[in-house]
Structures are given as C-alpha cells and as structure tokens.
Amino acid sequence: MCIIEEISENDYENWKFIFKKYLLFYNSKLSEKIIRNTWDNIINKEKPINCIGCYETSKIKKKQLVGIMNFIYHKSTWIENNVCYLEDLFILEDYRSRGYASALFNHLTTICNINNVNRIYWKTKSDNHIAQSLYNKLALKTNFLEYEILLKN
Prior knowledge:
Layout: E1 2-6, H1 12-25, H2 32-43, E2 49-56, E3 64-74, E4 83-91, H3 100-114, E5 120-121, H4 129-138
Parallel strand pairs: 4-5
Antiparallel strand pairs: 1-2, 2-3, 3-4
C-alpha cells in the first residue's frame, strides 16, 4: 500500500537517494550544491518548486519513501491560470509496477485542480517505453519537439 503526500524536511536523505537514482537512470550527474539547492527550493514554500512523495506502508515497517514527483507551477503566455511542469518522476525499481506512479499522477491532478492550474505537462526520453506506456493512458501525446540552447552561466 502507498500513501501520497507532500514531502517534508525530514525526508531529505531519502529524497536525495531517490533523486540520485533518477539522475543515474538518465545518465546525468549534478553537484551536491545543485542537489541541495533543489531541495532547499522544494522545502521553501515561497518558491514554485514542489515535491510529493510516494510512501510504502505496512504493519511491519514504518512508512518508507519509494518515489518522488518534483513539479513547478508557472505562468503561461497562452492562459490566465498557472500551468504545472512535471520535472522529475521516479519510483525505486523494487516498487515499480504497483500503481505508485499512477497514484502520484492522480494526486498531482487533484492538487492542480484545487489550485486552479490549467495544464500539467512533462517530457520523457524517446526510448523510455515503459514510462510512455503509462503516460499514453493518462495524457495526450503532443506533436511538439523540444529544443535546447545550453548557456554558459
């Protein structure tokens, strides 16, 4: 069974462990400073970065963080209400295929509706077919491609 709730300050080490697994999954690496800055922004309620966690629960052990969903509210030039960019979603490998990612999406959809957010969007790698099988059930796949200009700062 899982519980979905907002991450708390006490979750830092577990969140960091999962976030680093997520980075490894995408063959990426961030400095400890950037990881800590991301966490500080998540915990700071004045910042638009948020995180909900998926906690495995059982009678035998206390709740354990097994998945995270980091997301950002921001303005759009196309509508009045905020939109939500889902930046990071990761479930630890031993806890996949249990409906936990779907539970995170359901919770995010609920809180976005409560906060009058117009749309949730995200990206995934083109070869991440397992994730896409879930995404295709939950959302509309758009025809847009993504481009980046990497800056030196």
